[in-house]
Design a protein that fits this description.
Blueprint lengths: L3 H20 L12 E3 L5 E3 L3 E2 L5 E2 L30 E4 L4 E4 L3 E2 L5 E2 L9 E5 H8 L23 E5 L3 E2 L5 E2 L3 E2 L7 E2 L1 E9 L7 E8 L2 E2 L3 E2 L7 H10 L4 E12 L4 E10 L18 H7 E4 L3 E2 L5 E7 L5 E4 L6 E9 L6 E6 L8 E2 L5 E2 L4 E4 L12 E7 L2 E6 L2 E2 L3 E2 L4 E4 L4 E4 L3 E2 L5 E2 L44 E7 L2 E7 L4 E2 L20 E3 L4 E3 L11 E3 L7 E3 L45
Parallel strand pairs: 14-32, 41-43, 42-44
Antiparallel strand pairs: 1-2, 3-4, 5-6, 7-8, 9-10, 11-12, 13-33, 15-20, 15-23, 16-17, 16-18, 16-21, 16-22, 19-20, 24-29, 25-26, 25-30, 26-27, 28-29, 30-31, 34-35, 36-37, 38-39, 39-40
Protein name: EGF-like domain-containing protein
Pfam family, one: EGF_2
Organism: Bicosoecida sp. CB-2014
């Protein structure tokens, strides 16, 4: 039997053994693998980077927010708590590395990947950078910088910002040229107005403005809008933007107290200069909201001694209207813009298909045409586009604008072709040509209803005109040879004349009057020169068949001039082997009707 005293001693020994064993860590699993601390309750507190009951496993990195961690109870709270691998991958406990699910990247699978690394044609950036560098400037005054975006996904959603000319989620698609419909020639350019000012009317604006269009920045424009070069500076700044091809700037007002000003800017869009983030269909100046999204102004380079600078864009207010004040004549008017460069712009008009007036300057008020019919371009006397045309029908006391020009569209291949995004080029429809299918292939003309019934009438009446009344350009690099024809005149299915690619004019019955200068002249059936004579300075003359007849009137006749001291002035050669005694190399005849008189058959001087 065991005495009570012995039991007490045994219990005390067991307790002491347990106490000493716990202090040595013998009770923690695997001694916490020497990667943690053994607690008195035999659990391990693992060092950083390790986990598990015995600290034998590695932990994986966590992201800034889990994509989905719980059921949302409020805005943006479904992304807490922060989890390993951002809940977008599985943790490899042996290495402490995340195996991300498809589409996610980063050491903690914390962000989306950019497909195919943007194919080397762009940069992969997070939404925070996208908003700051490419976003809309909403500050006042503007600083040209976008908004700060700090939502939970600011650093976790990434995407491609493609180089100009490329689009698609991975920048793999090459953008085709964009342009207006090539079949519609009567269209308006895009027009806006912008104003620069300061809150203190007596503090001059100095420094420079920078315009931002479609995410692209212009060169600087001097802040002095009252200077003589302000309009030219404006055009330089706008056309420096990759997305704008041409610009016409008109200063319409100045702020003399602080050198500010108001400008109307008419511009055409570049066929290129866009990418996946900055693309548009030409609807840029329809409403203030759309305009504000497309155009911003950076005032961060402006220096002002007092107050704050401002730079604002507004929609252009161009309108067209017509009215009658008393006539009962029923007729139709056509009104066309003829001068888009002058200030004010000018227009022509005709009534009932009659003659056109010449360069009527806009007045900004009602202007009378004929038969008590008035038109009005509103207060906007600049910014209109040459060849834009309106048709007004007048019936009794009423007028109706039956045709008006639209603002130029801006679509892939002009909306008249198909874009090949693999090559970045357009396959144009049958009626249009050009890199953006924005030019008509054919010009369909209607014959005039009165003599001389011209199907095409080109007229330039300005006394100082120095341009080309008709110019034809071929976009392809064709060789300057006779394999293609620049001009061909056909009557009754027979070519009457044609101008080859070399400039050579040929035809069965071509007649010249006045003077004619040509490097090469070819006549198939001989030619008669009735007046003016024939004067050949160089190159000579060769007649294979037929007859050359020169009929001198007054001082006319034929002159063969040789300026060389060693070359022959004229050579006459018979090349037929059967050349006989009844033929002459040179024959000089005097009109048989002339008898006697003072005339030399041949004079050597």
């Amino acid at each position: 039997a065991v005495h009570a005293t012995e039991l007490l001693v045994l219990a005390a020994a067991v307790a002491l053994a347990l106490l000493v064993g716990g202090a040595r860590g013998d009770a923690c699993p695997n001694d916490c693998n020497f990667k943690g601390t053994c607690n008195t309750d035999t659990t391990c507190t693992c060092h950083t980077g390790f986990t598990g009951g015995d600290c034998s496993q590695r932990t994986c990195p966590v992201g800034v927010a889990a994509w989905v961690a719980k059921v949302a109870e409020a805005n943006d709270d479904a992304h807490d708590p922060i989890l390993e691998c951002s809940n977008n991958g599985l943790c490899d406990r042996s290495t402490g590395q995340c195996n991300c699910f498809h589409g996610f990247e980063g050491h903690a699978c914390e962000r989306t990947g950019c497909f195919n690394d943007c194919n080397g044609r762009g940069r992969c950036i997070p939404m925070s950078t996208l908003a700051l560098e490419e976003g809309i400037d909403t500050s006042s005054p503007g600083d040209g910088i976008g908004q700060t975006y700090s939502n939970w996904d600011a650093e976790v959603i990434w995407g491609c910002d493609c180089d100009l000319g490329w689009t698609g989620p991975d920048c793999s698609l090459e953008m085709c040229a964009k342009g207006p419909d090539g079949n519609d020639l009567s269209t308006l350019d895009h027009v806006l107005t912008f104003n620069t000012d300061g809150s203190d009317d007596n503090a001059d604006l100095t420094g420079s403005f920078v315009f931002v269009f479609n995410g692209q920045r212009s060169v600087t424009m001097d802040a002095d809008m009252t200077s003589a070069s302000a309009e030219a500076n404006c055009e330089t700044a706008f056309t420096s933007l990759p997305g704008i091809a041409t610009a016409r700037c008109f200063r319409t007002a100045t702020e003399a107290g602080n050198l500010g000003g108001t400008f109307t800017v008419a511009f055409t869009l570049s066929p290129f200069g866009k990418n996946n983030l900055h693309d548009h269909d030409g609807t840029l100046t329809t409403t203030e909201a759309i305009l504000d999204a497309a155009f911003q102004c950076d005032t961060s380079l402006i220096v002002v001694s007092a107050g704050t600078p401002s730079c604002t864009f507004t929609v252009w207010g161009g309108t067209f209207d017509a009215r009658r004040t008393g006539s009962d004549v029923t007729t139709t008017y056509r009104i066309m813009i003829t001068d888009q460069e002058s200030d004010p712009n000018k227009f022509d008009w005709s009534v009932a298909g009659g003659a056109w007036t010449q360069d009527v300057a806009m007045t900004g008020t009602w202007q009378t045409l004929q038969d008590q019919t008035d038109i009005n371009f509103g207060s906007t006397t600049v910014g209109w586009t040459q060849y834009a045309e309106w048709t007004v029908s007048a019936d009794g006391s009423d007028t109706t604008v039956t045709a008006s020009p639209l603002t130029k569209s801006h679509e892939y291949c002009g909306g008249q072709g198909v874009c090949n995004f693999a090559l970045g080029n357009c396959t144009c429809g049958p009626g249009v040509v050009g890199v953006a299918c924005d030019k008509p292939r054919y010009l369909n003309l209607t014959t005039e209803q009165s003599p001389p019934w011209a199907a095409l009438h080109l007229n330039e009446s300005k006394s100082d005109y120095a341009g080309n009344v008709l110019q034809m350009n071929l976009e392809d690099n064709l060789a300057l040879d006779a394999t293609w024809t620049a001009i061909r005149g056909i009557a009754n299915q027979i070519t009457q004349f044609q101008v080859a690619g070399t400039g050579l004019l040929t035809g069965p019955s071509v007649t010249f009057t006045g003077s004619w200068n040509a490097d090469t002249f070819t006549a198939d059936n001989g030619r008669t020169i009735t007046t003016g004579g024939l004067d050949i300075d160089a190159g000579g003359m060769s007649i294979d068949n037929g007859l050359l007849k020169v009929i001198g009137v007054g001082s006319g006749g034929a002159t063969i001039r040789q300026t060389s001291a060693t070359d022959n002035a004229a050579v006459m050669r018979a090349t037929n082997a059967a050349f006989g005694t009844n033929a002459q190399v040179l024959k000089i005849n005097v009109d048989p009707a002339r008898a006697g008189g003072e005339a030399d058959m041949l004079d050597a001087a």
